[in-house]
Amino acid sequence: MPFSKQIEVSSEKTQSRIVLALDLEHDDHNDLIKKCYEVLEAVYGYICAVKINRQLVLALGLPTVGQIVQEVHKHSLPVIMDAKLNDVGHTNSFMLKSYIVAGFDAVIASPISGWTGGMDSVFEYAEREDKGIILLVYMSNPGADEFYSMMVSTEGVLKPVYEIFTKMAVEWGADGLVVGATRPEIIRRVRTLAGPSMDIYSPGVGAQGGDAKNAVESGSDYLIVGRTIYASKSPRDTARELRMSIK
């Protein structure tokens, strides 16, 4: 099943648009693993997927993270690796293969390396393995404007970088786009450019100032939420309330 369909089915099952960002940090290895499982057990009924970032992989190692991925799959939830792949093709392919072997269903990549010798092998390998590629179009941090809104000339026309990235994603057949929830006006523009069938994933809700309802109304399909949920006194209650706010 293609990843875009996989997460759609999961979203319909849990009646949720929330992707839990399991971006936990802890100095103690065992406590970090324990916390991951505790948060997952508390919220799995209120989310549609889980995203894991490089911090967790570096802290625990890919084999251990692979065990967490297996646990997520037991709850019939897909798992996204926030790898932000942006290197040359053979390096990208090696990293992608490693994440797929560990059990991930989709990987976030950056289109900055271009197609030939950059993203071409990534998309080809993902297609063979029936895995998803989600492209980073606009980050959620305050300094993102400096690059993603930079005007560059393409085909004799000045356009912001994020519009060029959106065009690439559509042409390459990406499974989704990442646009920060902190920028609803950019979400609206990307939705217009990408069309109704391209999924938009928006991080930055809560802790970074993004508003869940505003992001969804602007065109986001899925919200990537981490600290707002796992750092709350009751991750279960917070996830449930957030799900209801955008249902």
Task: Give an overview of the whole structure.
With 247 residues, the protein is α/β, with parallel strands linked by helices. The chain has one domain: Alpha-Beta Barrel (TIM Barrel). Helices cover 50% and strands 19% of the residues. It has helices at 3-14, 29-43, 54-60, 62-74, 89-101, 115-129, 145-148, 161-172, 184-194, 212-218, 227-230, 235-245, and strands at 18-21, 49-53, 79-85, 106-109, 132-138, 151-154, 157-160, 176-179, 200-203, 222-225. The strands form two sheets. An eight-stranded parallel β-barrel has the order 1-2-3-4-5-8-9-10, surrounded by nine helices. The model has no long low-confidence stretch (mean pLDDT 95).
- Principal-axis shape: globular
**Low-confidence residue ranges:** none
What is the CATH topology classification name? TIM Barrel
SSE order, as H and E?
A: HEHEHHEHEHEHEEHEHEHEHH
Q: Number of DSSP strands?
A: 10
Please give the count of helices.
12
Measured between the Cα atoms of the first and last residue, the distance is: 25 Å
Radius of gyration: 17 Å
The CATH architecture: Alpha-Beta Barrel
CATH class: Alpha Beta
CATH superfamily: Aldolase class I
Largest sheet, in brief, is: 8 strands, parallel, barrel
- How do the strands line up in the largest sheet? 1-2-3-4-5-8-9-10
Assign the structural class, choosing from mainly alpha, mainly beta, alpha/beta, alpha+beta, or little secondary structure.
alpha/beta
Mean pLDDT: 95
Strand content: 15-25%
Percentage of residues assigned to helices = 40-55%
Query: Number of domains in the coordinates?
Result: 1
